[in-house]
Amino acid sequence: MADLSFIEDSVAFPEKEEDEEEEEEGVEWGYEEGVEWGLVFPDANGEYQSPINLNSREARYDPSLLDVRLSPNYVVCRDCEVTNDGHTIQVILKSKSGGPLPQGHEFELYEVRFHWGRENQRGSEHTVNFKAFPMEIGKEHVGLKAVTEILQDIQYKGKSKTIPCFNPNTLLPDPLLRDYWVYEGSLTIPPCSEGVTWILFRYPLTISQLQIEEFRRLRTHVKGAELVEGCDGILGDNFRPTQPLSDRVIRAAFQ
């Protein structure tokens, strides 16, 4: 999963019973102010929830992270499905990765999800020293071009389109700029299951203003649906507020 404010990577391996998964499917949730996810999804009340504010001065340098080389080498995805699910844009794919993760497990990049703000002052889920990012504005991001070019075709909820080629490696910083932090947290969307290792890159990527505006044209509803009073149907501000750090330690792979 990636948040283009400052690239985030996460690996989740929570186990759930089949009937529990079926029960949670179809449950409505959203980012509206005042909505309490914990009333419907108990895991959202856990102590080790994400996202968090990352205080760089309190991060603990861990030289052992350098022993496990962070060297994701994602496989280029052919015929990837891009979907507007009403909460975000998803790119569904499968591509193996590596990093400071539990040994003896094989992990796959399953999907890429995007979070953005209606304005440039906000949008990222995690914050660094209380600074939020919108999907940082700058030059056009070539790796996102395949996605942003088709967003007009999936403007409404439930729409999807297949793109012929998507290279997840283009969403990562330059190999020389891959300093990162690591901490243990949760999914940032319901059911907010814990057991997630978050890898947060120190240096941000950039995306052009034109590209981010393509995201801001998306809608949370199906085409032609009647909107409830006070809802404009614009898909944006789709980020969960930061959660308490509690007793967790943020580790840094750099000094």
UniProtKB/TrEMBL annotation:
<feature type="region of interest" description="Disordered">
    <location>
        <begin position="1"/>
        <end position="28"/>
    </location>
</feature>
<dbReference type="InterPro" id="IPR036398">
    <property type="entry name" value="CA_dom_sf"/>
</dbReference>
<feature type="domain" description="Alpha-carbonic anhydrase">
    <location>
        <begin position="27"/>
        <end position="254"/>
    </location>
</feature>
<protein>
    <recommendedName>
        <fullName>Alpha-carbonic anhydrase domain-containing protein</fullName>
    </recommendedName>
</protein>
<dbReference type="Pfam" id="PF00194">
    <property type="entry name" value="Carb_anhydrase"/>
</dbReference>
<dbReference type="InterPro" id="IPR001148">
    <property type="entry name" value="CA_dom"/>
</dbReference>
<feature type="compositionally biased region" description="Acidic residues">
    <location>
        <begin position="16"/>
        <end position="28"/>
    </location>
</feature>
<comment type="similarity">
    <text>Belongs to the alpha-carbonic anhydrase family.</text>
</comment>
<dbReference type="InterPro" id="IPR023561">
    <property type="entry name" value="Carbonic_anhydrase_a-class"/>
</dbReference>
